[in-house]
Amino acid sequence: MDLIYALIYGVVSGLAEMLPISAPAHQQLLRYLFGTGQTDYLMNLFVHMGLLGAVCLAYRDALKTFFRGGKGRRGRYGPVTGAVYDFRLIKTATVFMVVVMLLTMNVAQGLQHYVYLSAFFAVNGIFLYIPQHVRQSNKDARHMTGLDGMLLGVLSGLSVFSGLSRTGIFISSGLLRGADQKNAVNWAFLLTVPAIVVLILFDFGFMAMGTLGAVSFARVALSLLSGAAAFGCGFGAIRFMNFLAVWTGFYGFAYYSWGAAFFSLILYLIT
Asked: What is the DSSP letter of 134?
């Protein structure tokens, strides 16, 4: 059972983190369904490391440009000037996202009940559904302002509340601000890098506060399995989201979120 749980936990975490459906919420539901109780922060650590590796692999060219401050040769992600503006937008969004995450983490930890989970899933669905009824534009980072970066960062930081997806909120908010759909997806995943780094630091922090528990070879091996599954599924989900950005869009995930909200409400009523 532990092996099955570790594998499913990694698969679901990898998909739910990169798809706009909230990884923390699905992790909470898995813990309920498997009766595992409290969060295993060691397993979370390996999952987050796997997700970070998936994003870095998928966006390795863009990240190389970012680490050079937007300077370098013309490459896969467009001219140097475009990379500079991307860098500025993500940097602004990162600052405000991290601040909001730090300010709201304790509150979010206290809102783990299924009734809150249901409410946040429903709100996530609304975020995903609205952009399809708004006239689409084609802004790139050159046309996004500092205010846009601040707004996208603040809203993305609210993803610490289980049920709200950082990817979904960022993409939907970007579309509402007139961003091109493909650009919004790329920015969302680039912002995932600092977001996951913050989550890794939280994992270390929780473990340092005494929630690590007994560490054995079997537990480390299961955590590695979860991390590997999260890496593979996260990378695949990134590719899938880029496919949707070109062909269909993301509003279908709104119906999934509302279904998850209904399921969470049922859990609230029966527990």
From this structure: S
Q: Is 139 helix (H, G, I), strand (E, B) or coil?
A: strand
CA nearest to 44, candidates 12, 19, 21: 12
As a whole number of angstroms, the distance between CA 201 and CA 115 comes to 28
How many C-beta neighbours within 10 Å does residue 181 have? 20
Give the burial string for 236-248 (b: 16+ CB within 10 Å, else e).
ebbeebeebbeee
pTM, two decimals, is: 0.89
Rounded CA separation 50/242 (Å): 19
- Please report which confidence band the pLDDT of residue 9 belongs to, taking 50, 70 and 90 as the band edges: very high
Query: Using CA atoms, how far apart are residues 108 and 119, in angstroms rounded to an integer?
Result: 13
> How far apart (Å, rounded) are the C-alpha atoms in residues 112 and 50?
24
Distance between CA atoms of residues 134 and 132, nearest Å: 6
Q: If residue 121 lies in a helix (H) or strand (E), which one and from where to where? A: helix 114-129
Count of CB atoms within 10 A of residue 24's CB?
A: 25
Helix (H, G, I), strand (E, B) or coil at 176: helix
